[in-house]
Amino acid sequence: MAYQNITAATEDGVAVVTLNRPDVLNALNQTTMNELVDACEGFDRDEAVRCIVITGAGRAFAAGADIKEMAGASAPQMLAGYRFQQWERIRKITTPIIAAVNGLALGGGCELAMLCDIIVASETAQFGQPEINLGIMPGAGGTQRLTRAIGKYRAMEMVLTGRPIPARQAEAWGLVTKVVPPEVVLDEAKGMAREIAGKAPVAVRLAKESVLKAFDTHLEGGLDFERKCFYLLFATEDRAEGISAFLEKRKAIFKGR
Q1: Which H or E run includes 62?
Q2: What are 198-207's pLDDT values in tens digits?
Q3: 120 in Cβ contact with 178 (< 8 Å)
Q4: 23-51: average pLDDT
Q5: How much is the pLDDT for 257?
Q6: Strand partners of residue 99
Q7: Residues with catalytic roles
Q8: CA 98 to CA 117: how far, in whole Å?
Q9: What kind of architecture, by CATH, is found in domain 201-247?
Q10: Which of 23, 46, 182, 200 is the most buried (most CB within 10 A)?
């Protein structure tokens, strides 16, 4: 499918989706979000795709929502527009998603990165929730996911001051998985994606779901869910292949069954 605001391609079991509005720092308008959701859901249904990388063209991952699009909107219009429905659909993607953050990740851009399962950041990347400077606040998970990632007091500072933090600080605070030089950020994310793509697909998806469950439920419920997924994997062909390969000292060939 031809897209207006993104590009999408696949290689070796990895899909790369690039936000492609560099002239406006990849601002996330409705068209961009609709295209992003369409691409990610399509890849999620494709058995050949085992990991997704999201990145941005130019000098930003995404510098936030498209403010011009919201400038004249009323509260009823914002509510009726289902503005955050796309974000919930991305949250339900079962294929692992890696964010390759190559520059500014502000507002909705930071929230989009936090929707991903792993964040690889450039040394020049910046993360922030500057909505307070516009008289509003984060609305796509910024107050919730940021707090879970870095804690109450640091999240309060970022949300209430609107000040961004550099990549190394984000890494130290636990918001970022890994920081690398700008010229290799996409290659690093793709390399990690290929590594994940080489694992047993059913196990990867259930493991992702189990980790996310830790944020949605109490410990007892999360442990119960984890154990059920663990037992379920013993019904897969990949489990038999993985154990056989280990015992035979060879590389496993997983088929997603």
Answers
A1: strand 60-62
A2: 999 999 999 9
A3: yes
A4: 95
A5: 85
A6: 54, 119
A7: 65, 108, 111, 131
A8: 6
A9: Orthogonal Bundle (1.10)
A10: 200
Smallest Cα–Cα separation from 52: which of 206, 257, 192, 203? 192
> What percent of the chain stands above pLDDT 90?
82
DSSP string, 70-106: HTT--HHHHHHTTTTHHHHHHHT--S-EEEEE-SEEE
Residues counted in the chain: 257
- Determine phi and psi for 21, rounding to 5 degrees: -130, 60
pLDDT of residue 46: 95
- Measured in whole angstroms, how far is the alpha carbon of residue 179 from the centre of its chain? 16
Q: Which of 180, 111, 175 is nearest to 140 (CA)?
A: 111
Domain 6-197 belongs in CATH node 3.90.226.10: yes
Task: Please list, in sequence order, all residues whose beta carbon lies within 8 angstroms of the beta carbon of residue 123, skipping any fewer than 6 positions away.
Answer: 167, 168, 179, 180, 181, 182
Do 6-197 and 201-247 come out as alike in CATH topology? no
Sheet-wide strand order for 178-180? 6-11, 14-19, 51-56, 97-101, 118-122, 178-180
Mean pLDDT, residues 231-239: 92
Domain map of the chain by residue range? Answer: 6-197, 201-247
Contact 254, 242 (CB under 8 A): yes
Tokens of 71: 């400038």
Give the separation between CA 65 and CA 27, rounded to whole angstroms.
5
- Which three-class secondary structure string do you get for 192-245? HHHHHHCCCHHHHHHHHHHHHHCCCCCHHHHHHHHHHHHHHHHHCHHHHHHHHH
* HSE, side-chain direction, 13 A CA sphere, residue 230: 7
